[in-house]
Amino acid sequence: MKEVYEFLKEAGVYYLATVDGDQPRVRPFGTIDLFEDKLYIQTGKVKNVANQMKANPKVEISAMTPDGRWIRITAEAVLDDNIKAQEHMLDGYPDLKAMYQPGDGNTEVYYLKNAVAQICSFTEPAREIRF
């Protein structure tokens, strides 16, 4: 899991796909956190992405690093109401504190459950990481 976290940090931006009815929805994200042995993402409760993950927690994440490696992650997004998880996430992204505060009723953090990550490149065999 730490390797997946480090990969996403190196990429900087990753793309989170959710399901909206029968339509896939993809958007760029930048928040990623390791907290209590879980990999977390963050969004606002009022955003469509939060409603989509609550209706169907199956998500996919994709990102690419500057050296041409890419990652695909399939997982379930699980909402975690733990204020400590929100604090830990926002401590890592102080610029977000202008929009989000732990326990503000809008900040939501989700951890990835039953995750399968594939790290790929054109020069090395694909590797799979489960967490």
Summed up:
The protein has 3 helices and 8 strands, in the order αββββαββαββ. The chain is α+β, with helices and mostly antiparallel strands and 131 residues long.
Low-confidence stretches: none
SSE string, helices as H and strands as E:
HEEEEHEEHEE
Distance between the termini: 6 Å
The tally of domains stands at: 1
Task: Walk me through the structure.
- This protein has 131 residues and is of the alpha+beta class.
- It has one domain: Electron Transport, Fmn-binding Protein, Chain A (Pnp Oxidase, Chain A), CATH 2.30.110.
- The chain is 21% helix and 46% strand.
- It has three helices and eight strands, in the order H-E-E-E-E-H-E-E-H-E-E.
- Strand 1 (14-20) and strand 2 form a beta hairpin.
- The radius of gyration is 14 Å and the shape is globular.
- The model has no long low-confidence stretch (mean pLDDT 97).
Features:
alpha+beta; 131 residues; Pnp Oxidase, Chain A
What is the fold's blueprint, element by element?
Layout: H1 2-11, E1 14-20, E2 23-29, E3 33-35, E4 38-44, H2 48-55, E5 58-64, E6 70-80, H3 83-92, E7 107-120, E8 127-130
